[in-house]
Structures are given as C-alpha cells and as structure tokens.
Write a structure and sequence with these properties.
Blueprint lengths: L7 H5 L14 H10 L5 H5 L7 E5 L5 H6 L5 E6 L2 H10 L6 E5 L14 E3 L10 H11 L1
Parallel strand pairs: 1-2, 1-4, 2-3
Length: 142
C-alpha cells in the first residue's frame, strides 16, 4: 500500500485547542490513563507498517500502540512529555527487544531528519495547544 504525504492543512482545520496533556502529571493519572485507553485504530495503523520499518510513536503515552507496532516494525521508538506514562510504556513493553521509550517533545524531536520510515501521532494533537503548536508538531514530523 503506497503511503500518502502528510496533509498538515487537514489537521490545522481541527478546532480542538485543549492544551494541557500532562498538566497534572502523576503516577496515578498515568495508571488511570493506561487502564481507560485502548489503542485506537490499530488495525488501520498496522496497514501502513512494513516489515523492517523504523517507526516513531510520537506522543506514545503508555505504549499501547507501540506494542502492536513492534509486531511488524523492526524498531519502534516512543516519545512522550510525561515521564510517568513513559515509565508505564517501558514496563508494558519490557519483553520487546525492538521497542524503546524516552521523555521528549513531539514539537522538538531529538532525532535526525529521516530517522523513521513512519511516524504515528495518535490522539495527540488536541493536547498540544493552538494552531501554531499543531503546525510546529506536524512540520517537525513531516
């Protein structure tokens, strides 16, 4: 299946400026998040992953998508601003040799351009703030 280029304008039309993901970062809220959330659209997402791909799960939360991505991809790297969620992701995926997680920002990725074949940004944009932040995040990843 051919991949389509990122359409930033589509995402910028979304008027969901609920900044604040992780405003109340705590182990308890991260654990509640992990129990309440299910990986959204996994079947559709896996259709884009090819064996051997290097995948970035940007805004990975507790690593739920990363676990599935690692079944196909050669390497999955998860990044999230919330250290409590990263800790859960590491625990959740500790049996996987091809998944790693680190604390960081999706608007200022600590990776060289072209490091990944595919970037997943699932259930993240509405946590980032206004249009300027959305644009910065998508530009960084595309």
């Amino acid at each position: 299946m051919p991949r389509k280029p990122c359409n930033i304008e589509h995402y910028l039309k979304q008027d969901d400026n609920q900044a604040g993901y992780g405003d109340n970062n705590s182990d308890q809220s991260a654990a509640q998040y992990n129990q309440a959330r299910s990986p959204f659209g996994v079947k559709e997402i896996l259709g884009f992953v090819r064996p051997g791909d290097m995948v970035l799960d940007a805004g990975c939360g507790t690593g739920q998508h990363a676990r599935y991505l690692a079944e196909v991809a050669s390497k999955v790297v998860g990044i999230d601003t919330d250290s409590a969620r990263i800790a859960i992701a590491k625990e959740h995926c500790q049996d996987l040799d091809n998944a790693s997680f680190e604390v960081g920002s999706v608007t200022k990725l600590p990776f060289e351009d072209g490091s990944f074949d595919l970037v997943l940004l699932a259930q993240v944009l509405h946590h980032l703030g206004g249009e300027d932040v959305h644009s910065a995040s998508l530009t960084e990843q595309c």
